[in-house]
UniProtKB/TrEMBL annotation, chains A, B, C, D:
Keywords: Oxidoreductase. GO terms for molecular function: nucleotide binding; oxidoreductase activity. PANTHER family: BCDNA.GH03377. Residues 9-124 form the Gfo/Idh/MocA-like oxidoreductase N-terminal domain. Residues 146-296 form the GFO/IDH/MocA-like oxidoreductase domain. The keyword Oxidoreductase applies. Residues 229-248 are annotated as: Disordered. The keyword Oxidoreductase applies. This is Gfo/Idh/MocA family oxidoreductase. It comes from the Bacteria. InterPro entries: Gfo/Idh/MocA-like_OxRdtase_N (IPR000683), Gfo/Idh/MocA_oxidrdct_glycsds (IPR050463), GFO_IDH_MocA-like_dom (IPR055170). Pfam families: GFO_IDH_MocA, GFO_IDH_MocA_C3. The lineage of its organism: Bacteria, Bacillati, Actinomycetota, Actinomycetes, Propionibacteriales.
Length: 402, 402, 402, 402
C-alpha cells in the first residue's frame, strides 16, 4: 500500500554497528508514527563493493554507492545520514549540506573543535536555504531520559545541585582484546572521552537544561599496546575499517578512561566518568541528578525505568520511585505497546528519525543542532586540555580569528 | 536489493495490538537474521474495509482482504497468521491448514479444549503434507527466558523443587475501566487465566521441561459490571471488536484473577497467579524456579536480565547473579547489538518468526506445536474445573468419546 | 547508675537461637526506649546445668535454673519468656500464668489447636488478675512492616484485593543436612508450615487487618530421611535438643514446603508459600499487597525498605517507591539512629520487649494475644486438614464440645 | 554471672550520636563474641552534670565525670573512648595516652594534619609501653565491607583499575535546616569532606590495599547562611554543643559537598564524592571497584549485601551477584544470627570493640592506627589544598620542620 505522504530519499554512509541501527530506524519509524514525509531507503554507501552490496540486501536499501561524493550528488537523495568514523564526518557532512541535502551525523560531531566549528558554520549557512543538520545524540530519545528532561523542565526537582554521570563499559578489560579504529587517535579523535563521554556530556546538559562551564579532567590509558587483528574479525563495535591482515601489536593512542569534575551554568557541580574498563558493566549509562526539591536516577542497563525522588513528599512515605516508562503519556511510548511492554536500544534511533522528519516537515531546526554538537566538542576538548595541564579549563569555544 | 532466498507469502488476520506486533516481526526478521525464506507481507485481513486499508498502509502490507475465507484461498499466501480473539482461532486455523497454508496462531490456542483438540488434530493431519502449525507463546523467545531453558537443560540448577510463577497486570484496577471483548467469556473464553495465565503455564513447562499433572485453583472476579464504551475508544488492549456506541454497563463474565497450586511430572510443586488487579504491576511476568543445585528468577519488567543462583559456589561468594542477557553467546542476541544494549518487547515476535521460518526451511515441526497449545488448554480447563469443584483436578485431556 | 523505674524480673526458658535473640532484646530495650519498668535478667532456665551456666554468663543472666517449674515459682520473677520447642509451650505457659507470671511465648503458640485453645483460655483467666500473655510474632515489629500496617490502616492502598506472601529459606536444600527437632513432628508440630508459615499468616492478617476465612493447601516433603547427628553439632537453627550421639538416619515427619490459597474476610484472595527448599533464598519473607488505590511490597532480605505504589499519582510519575524506613517519624526508628542507618534482625525483638513492657506498664493487653496466636494456629490446622483432604477448609476453630 | 576474663575499664567522652553507638557496642560485644577482656562501662564524661547523669543512666554507665582530665586520671579506667567533636580529639587523646590509657578516637582523627601528626607521634611513643591507640573508621567492620577486603586480598578481582566512591546524604538540602557545630569550621575542621569523605577515603584505601597518592578536588558550599537554633533542638546529627538560645543566622564555614579525582599507588584511578545535598540519599556509602578480573559494589543503604562480578565466568552466565553477607563464614557473622537475618548500623561498632579488645588481649596494634588516621587526614588536607589551587596535589604529609 502506498504511503500518502511525500517521500524523503535517504542515503546512508557506513553500514557497521551504527549503520544497522540507523537502517532499522528509517525502516521502522513510519510503521509506528505519523510522519510528514515517508523515508525511502534509497542508497547505502561504503567503499567495498561486495560488502556494501551484501549490507544493502541485509539492511533493506534500494541501491548502493561506493563513493560518497556520488551519493551526495544524487538527485533522489534528500538526506545524507553519516555513520562513518569521526575523521570523515566534517568532509562528508559539509559536502552534503553544500549539495543541499539535509544531514544527520553520528556523534561525536567531529574529531576536533576546528572541524566541528566548520560543520556548525556550514549548517548555519545551509539553514538559510531550509537545509537542516542534526547530530545524533540518540540517548536523548530513550523515553526515560526524555521524561527526565520533562520533569526537570517542570521544576519537579527544583534547582540542580549535583550531576553524577557515568558511562561504564568493559569491552577493553582484556589486554588481549584487539586494536580497532576506535583506539586510534587519528580515526577516532579520542577514546572513551569522545565515544561515550560525549553522550553523558550531552545527556547531562540536555536533562538539566544547563551548560558545563568549566572542567577538570583526568585521562588514563591502562593498556597501551594491543594485538592487531585482520579485518575479518571485524565486530559491531568497530571493525568496519578492516586494517588488513598484518599481525603484531598496535599502539593505543586514545584514553581508556576519562573522568572529570565540572561546574554548570546554574551552579551545580558535576562528576563525570567514561570508561571501557568497568569490568561487568556493559553499557551502563548512569545519571543521577540531585535538586533542591527532588532527584532523578537512570541506568541504561535498565533502560525502561526512571527513578524519581520527590522531596515534597512527607518523609515517612518519600522514596525513590521506580517509574516504568511505558505509559501512553510518556514520551514516544503511546505509539508502541501497552504499559509494561518495554522498548529496546534501537528504539532511540527510531525516535530520532521521528523527531528529525517531523522537524523537516515543519521546516523547524531539528535538535540537537550541529552547533549543539560543537558545544559538546568544546567540552570534550576542554577536558583534554585540562587533563594535559592538570588544571581547570573553561569550555568556551576559542574565539574565532577575526 | 532483492533477497536471494524464496519468498514466503504471509497473510495476517487481525490488526490490533497483536497484529501490529506480528507485522513488525515479519518486516524486521530478515534484516537481522539469515532466513531460508523471505517473508512477504502479502495481505492483511479485517472486517472493516476502511480500517483494514488504513492498517495495511500503516503496518506495511501489500494488499487487504475483508473476508478471511478469501485470504485463506489466495495462492500467493503460504502462511496464515491468526491474531484474532480466541473464539475465531479454530475456524480460521483449521480452514487455513486444510487449504495447505502453514499457520501461526496466537495464544491461547482456542477458547475450549474441544476446539484446541480439533485444531491439534487438523495440524497433525496437515503435517503429513508438510504443512506446519505453531502456537504463539512468544515469551519463550525472550533471550533471558531462552537462556533459562538452556541452563535447566544443562542441569545447572539440578532437580526442580519449586516453580513460582506470576503474571501481574493492573489495567482493570479501576472499576470504571470499560468493558472490552477480553472480559466477555464468549469472545475470550476466560479472563486473566487464558489471556495471561496461559503464558506462565507455557513458560513454566517450557523452562523446566516438565508438565503440570494436577492443579487446584481459585478464580475471582472483583468487578462484575463495567461501563460500555463505544468502539471509538478502542485501545491496544482490546478495542478491536468495537461493540457499537450504545452506552450502559456490561457484565464481566470472566475471571479478573486466577491462582492455582500445581504438581509437576518431576515432583516439583508450583504456585501460579495471573491477575489484572495487581496495582502498579504493568506486565510483570515473574518466574522463580528453585532446584537442588541452584535457582533462576526472571521478571519481564526487567526483561533483559536473568538471575541465577549457583548452589555449587562456596557459601561465602554465592548470590543471585544478575545476568544481563545481551551477550553475543546468548540466545538470539548475536544478531542484534553489542553487550548492554537491551532488546524490547517486540523482539520476542521477531524471534518467533525466525524460529518458525527456520523450521519451515528445514521441514521441521516448529515449536510450540498445536498439540503443545492443546496441552496448555487442558491445564487451563483443569484450573477452571478445579476452581468450580474446589478440588484437585488432573490436567490430562478428557478421553474422547469412542 | 540505677534506673528510676521499678524492676521487672524476667525468667527465660531456652537459650538457643531464640534465647539469644530475646536476651539481647531484654538487655537492650531500656537503653534506647523509655520503659515504665526496667527488665532485670533474673534467671535463665535449661536442662543441662553446665550449658545453661555457660549460656547465662554469655547472655548476661543473673542466675540459672534447670527446672522450669522452679523458675515459675520464684518470687523475683515477674515474667516468663518461653523460647523452647513448641511441644512444651502449653505446659510452661499455662503453669506460669497460673503462678501469676506474665508470659511471652515464642510462636507458633503451640503444636496443636487444642493446646493453643487451652493456652488462650488460661490467658483470658489470668487477665482477670492483670496477668498478661503475648505471643512472639516479632516480624510485626520490623519498622517497614509496622509502617505497612499504618499505611493500610490509613487507607493509602484502598480495598485489599491480593495478598502474596512467601517465606523462603534454603537450609534443607542439601539432602545431607542433618535431622533436627524442627523436622520431628512430635517436637515441632509441623515443618515449614508452623515454623515460618505461621509468620506470614500473622503478617498478612496483621498488615491487612483482615482474617483468613478459608484455605486450600498443599504440603510436600522432598527429603524424607536425613542423617542423624550427635548433639555436638547443634546449630542456631535448631540444635538445642541434642538427640544424643547415635548415628544413622532419621525420618522427617514434617513438611519441607507448604503452599496454600486463601480467602480473606474483606474479599481479598491470597497465595501463601513457606519453604526451606528455595535455593539461594536465606530468609526471604516477602509480602506484596495490592489494593484498589495502591500496593505495598516488602522483602525481609532488604528489611529496612518498604515499597509503596500510590495509584492516585498521575500515571506518568507513578511507580513503586523504595521507602528507606529509617526516618525519625517511622515506627520505632526515632529511638535509634539518623536516617539511612538501618536496623537489623534482632531489633524486632527489642521492639517486642518495648511494646510488651509498655502494655504491662499501662495495664493493657499486649498484642498479639494468645487468642491471636490461637487464631493463627487454626489457620495452620486448616491448611493441614485441607492438604490432607485436597479441598477448601474453613479456618474457624472447631466448636468446643458442650 | 561473673565473666571469667579480666575487666577492661572504659571511660567514654561524649554522649551524643557517637556516644550512644559506642555505648551499645561496649555493652553488646561480650554477649556475642569471646573477648580476652571484659569491658566495664565505668564512666561517662560530659560538661553538663544533669545531662551526663541522664545519659549515663540511659546508656548504662556506672558513673559520670564532667571534666575529661579527671576521667583520664582515674585508676579504674583502662581505655578512653573519644566521641567529641574533632577540635578536642588531639588534646584528650594525647593526654589519655600520656596517662597510660588505651585510646579509641572517633574519625576524623583531628581537624588538622598538625594535630593528627601530634596524635600519631603520641601513639607511637605510648606503644612502647604497650598502650594502644586506634581510630574509629567503623564502616570497615560492616561484614560486606570486610568481605570486599578479603576478596581483593585473595586476588578475586585482579589488578584494580577504577575506584568509584560516594558518600551521599541529604540532611542539609533544606536551606532552613539549622546551623550545627558540624557546619562550623572551628569545631568540625571541614564539612562533608572530613565528616563523611573521610570514611570513603579510608574504605577505598582499606579495601584496595592501596594508598591515594595525588588528588584534584572541588569543594562547594551551596547554602552559606543558616538559621541558628537554640540548644533544645539538638539532634542526633550534631546538636550536642548547644549553641545557646540566641536566634538569627549563622555562617556556614565548611563545604556542603566535596568531590575529587584521585590516583592510587597501584595505578588505579578514583572518583570520590561526599555530599550532604544528595536529595533522597540518606546514608548512601557507595563503593564500586573494577579490577582486571572482576568488580565489587557496595551500598550502605543495603548494607548486608556485597555485589561481586567474576570476569572468569563464561560471558553467558557472568553477572553481578548479590551476596547476602549473612553466612557463618562471612566476617563477624558467625557470632550473630542464621543466614538471611541481617545486621544493622550499630553492629559495626560492636565489631570495632571486638577487634580492638582482641588486639589489646594479644598485645597487638589495633587497626586502623593513629598513623593510618593521619594518612587519611593528609588526603583530606590535600583535597582542600587542591580545591583552593585548582590543581593536583600530592597526599604526602608535609615534611616536618627540622
Amino acid at each position: 500500500m502506498h504511503p500518502i505522504v511525500p517521500d524523503l530519499g535517504i542515503g546512508l554512509v557506513g553500514y557497521a554497528f551504527m549503520g544497522a541501527a540507523h537502517s532499522q530506524a528509517w525502516r521502522t519509524a513510519p510503521h509506528f508514527f505519523d510522519l510528514p514525509l515517508h523515508p525511502r531507503l534509497r542508497a547505502l554507501c561504503g567503499r567495498d563493493p561486495g560488502r556494501v552490496t551484501e549490507a544493502a540486501r541485509r539492511l533493506g536499501w534500494e541501491s548502493t554507492e561506493t563513493d560518497w561524493t556520488r551519493l551526495v550528488s544524487r538527485s533522489d537523495i534528500d538526506l545524507v545520514d553519516v555513520c562513518t568514523p569521526g575523521d570523515t564526518h566534517a568532509e562528508i557532512a559539509i559536502a552534503a549540506l553544500r549539495a543541499g541535502k539535509h544531514v544527520l551525523c553520528e556523534k561525536p560531531l567531529a574529531n576536533s573543535v576546528a572541524e566541528a566549528q566548520a560543520m556548525a558554520d556550514a549548517a548555519d549557512l545551509a539553514a538559510g536555504d531550509g537545509v537542516r543538520a542534526m547530530v545524533g545524540f540518540t540517548y536523548r530519545r530513550v523515553p526515560a531520559v526524555a521524561l527526565a528532561r520533562q520533569l526537570v523542565e517542570q521544576g519537579r526537582i527544583g534547582d540542580i545541585r549535583h550531576v553524577r554521570a557515568q558511562y561504564l563499559q568493559d569491552w577493553l578489560t582484556d589486554p588481549q582484546s584487539p586494536m580497532t579504529w576506535r583506539l586510534d587517535k587519528d580515526k577516532a579523535g579520542s577514546g572513551a572521552l569522545g565515544d561515550i563521554g560525549a553522550h553523558i556530556v550531552d545527556l547531562a546538559q540536555h536533562i538539566t537544561g544547563e551548560r558545563i562551564v568549566t572542567v577538570n579532567g583526568m585521562l588514563e590509558t591502562f593498556v597501551r599496546e594491543r594485538p592487531l587483528s585482520d579485518g575479518s574479525s571485524a565486530t559491531h563495535l568497530g571493525g568496519d575499517t578492516g586494517r588488513g591482515s598484518s599481525l603484531g601489536t598496535g599502539q593505543v593512542t586514545v584514553d581508556d578512561a576519562a573522568t572529570f569534575l565540572a561546574r554548570f551554568t546554574g551552579g551545580a557541580v558535576g562528576v563525570f566518568e567514561a570508561t571501557r574498563f568497568a569490568t561487568g558493566r556493559k553499557n551502563a549509562i548512569r545519571l543521577e541528578i540531585n535538586g533542591s526539591r527532588g532527584s532523578l536516577a537512570f541506568d541504561f542497563e535498565d533502560m525502561n525505568v526512571l527513578e524519581l525522588y520527590d522531596a515534597d513528599e512527607p518523609a515517612e512515605t518519600a522514596g525513590f520511585r521506580r517509574i516504568l516508562v511505558t505509559e501512553p503519556g510518556h514520551p514516544y511510548v503511546g505509539s508502541w505497546w501497552p504499559p509494561g511492554h518495554g522498548l529496546g536500544y534501537e528504539h532511540g534511533f527510531t525516535h530520532q528519525v521521528v523527531d528529525l522528519v517531523t522537524a523537516l516537515g515543519r521546516g523547524d531546526q531539528p535538535l540537537p543542532s550541529f552547533r549543539d554538537g560543537l558545544q559538546v566538542q568544546c567540552v570534550l576538548a576542554a577536558v583534554q586540555r585540562s587533563a594535559e595541564l592538570g588544571a581547570w579549563e573553561p569550555t568556551a569555544a576559542p574565539v574565532p580569528a577575526a
